[in-house]
C-alpha cells in the first residue's frame, strides 16, 4: 500500500535528519512545522492548537511521525488528536503515558518511544540475545549521551519520572519491581577511560523487553559525567515552574542552564551492557560497550527504519508496539555499522564457564 507520511516537527534536530533519510530513499512525505523560520515552501506550517489547520494536515496523510518536543507539554495532545483520526502513529519521544486517555480509541498501529533511548536500547537487548545467548538471566544496561542538548530534550529528561517513563532507584526481577539496595554509584567506561556517576532508573521499555526476552532480572542506569552534574540537574528540576503551561517561559529558564550541562567532550551516545546467561549449555558473562553517533541521528534512523518496515509490511497489526517488536535487530546493527552510526563495539568481557568455575 502507498502511504503518505507527515512529519510533525520537521525542522527540529530529529525531524531534519529523518527527512534527509526519507528524501534519499525517495519515500513520499510532507513536512509540518510550527514555524516558518526555515524553508518549508509548499509544506504545512501551523500551530498544533489550531484545530482546523491540524485536521487539514491529518486529512492529507496516512502515517504521522511526531518529532515535536517537549513531550511533557505536547505529547499527549498530539497523540490523542492523531489516534482519534485512526492514523498510523509513530512517536519518537512519547511513551505509554501519552495514550492513557485513549486506549479504547486505538484502531491503528501505534509505535511509542521510537528513538535512541528508549528505542534503540530495546533493540540492543534483542541483538545481544540473538548474537551471544540462548538464555539471559540478568542484564544491566547503562546509557550516556554527550554533546549538545536542546531545551526541549532537557525538559523531557527532567520530567521523565513525572510523565511515567519508569521508576527511579528500582530494578525489575521475576516480573516485579524491586528497590535497589546496595546500589553502585559509579560505572567505569573503558572506551572513554573514566568513571561516570550512575543513577538507576528502570524504564517501561526495559520492563517490556525483559518480558519479551524472558530475562529474569533487568537493571537500567542513566550515566552522568559527575555527581555534581546529576545534582545540578536535580536543582534545575526544582526550579522549574511546571504548572506554567507556557513552554516559552520554561524554555527560558532551561536555556540559561545550558553552559553548565552541555558536554562537548564526547559528542555521541554510549551504552554499557553487562549480561549473565547461558550459551550452548555453559554459563556466560558478557560486557559490551557500544559507541554511537549523537542521540538525534540515532533517533532519526530508528524512525526511518520503522517507517520502512511499515511501508513494506504485507499486514499491519492494530495496537501499541515498541521498536524492538518491529525491527530485526541483526539487520539494523549490520546497517548501522556500515553507515558508521555505530562507531565501535567493544567486548570488554566475553567468558564462558562451567557452573561454579567463574
TrEMBL record:
Q: What is this protein called?
A: Saccharopine dehydrogenase
Phylogenetic placement of the source organism: Bacteria, Bacillati, Bacillota, Tissierellia, Tissierellales
Amino acid at each position: 500500500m502507498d502511504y503518505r507520511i507527515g512529519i510533525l516537527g520537521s525542522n527540529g534536530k530529529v525531524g531534519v535528519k529523518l527527512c534527509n533519510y526519507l528524501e534519499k530513499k525517495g519515500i513520499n512525505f510532507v513536512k509540518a512545522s510550527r514555524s516558518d523560520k526555515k524553508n518549508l515552501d509548499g509544506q504545512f506550517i501551523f500551530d498544533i492548537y489550531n484545530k482546523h489547520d491540524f485536521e487539514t494536515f491529518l486529512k492529507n496523510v496516512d502515517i504521522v511521525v511526531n518529532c515535536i518536543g517537549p513531550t511533557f507539554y505536547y505529547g499527549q495532545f498530539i497523540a490523542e488528536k492523531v489516534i482519534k483520526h485512526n492514523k498510523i502513529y509513530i512517536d519518537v519521544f512519547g511513551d505509554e503515558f501519552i495514550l492513557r486517555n485513549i486506549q479504547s480509541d486505538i484502531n491503528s498501529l501505534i509505535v511509542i518511544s521510537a528513538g535512541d533511548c528508549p528505542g534503540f536500547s530495546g533493540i540492543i537487548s534483542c541483538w545481544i540475545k540473538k548474537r551471544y545467548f540462548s538464555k539471559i538471566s540478568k542484564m544491566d544496561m547503562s546509557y550516556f549521551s554527550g554533546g549538545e542538548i536542546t531545551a526541549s530534550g532537557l525538559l523531557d529528561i527532567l520530567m521523565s519520572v513525572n510523565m511515567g517513563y519508569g521508576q527511579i532507584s528500582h530494578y525489575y526481577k521475576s516480573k516485579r519491581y524491586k528497590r535497589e539496595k546496595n546500589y553502585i554509584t559509579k560505572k567505569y567506561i573503558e572506551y572513554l577511560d573514566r568513571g561516570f556517576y550512575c543513577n538507576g532508573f528502570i524504564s517501561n521499555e526495559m520492563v517490556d523487553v525483559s518480558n519479551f526476552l524472558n530475562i529474569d532480572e533487568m537493571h537500567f542506569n542513566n550515566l552522568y559525567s559527575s555527581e555534581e552534574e546529576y545534582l545540578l540537574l536535580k536543582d534545575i528540576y526544582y526550579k522549574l515552574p511546571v504548572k506554567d503551561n507556557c513552554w516559552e517561559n520554561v524554555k527560558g529558564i532551561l536555556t540559561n542552564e545550558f553552559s553548565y550541562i552541555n558536554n562537548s567532550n564526547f559528542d555521541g551516545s554510549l551504552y554499557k551492557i553487562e549480561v549473565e546467561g547461558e550459551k550452548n549449555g555453559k554459563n556466560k558473562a558478557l560486557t559490551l560497550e557500544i559507541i554511537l553517533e549523537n542521540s538525534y541521528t540515532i533517533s532519526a534512523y530508528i524512525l526511518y527504519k520503522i517507517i520502512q518496515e511499515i511501508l513494506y509490511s504485507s499486514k499491519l497489526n492494530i495496537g501499541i508496539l515498541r521498536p524492538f517488536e518491529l525491527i530485526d535487530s541483526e539487520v539494523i546493527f549490520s546497517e548501522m555499522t556500515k553507515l558508521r552510526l555505530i562507531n565501535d563495539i567493544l567486548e570488554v568481557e566475553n567468558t564462558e564457564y562451567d557452573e561454579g568455575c567463574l
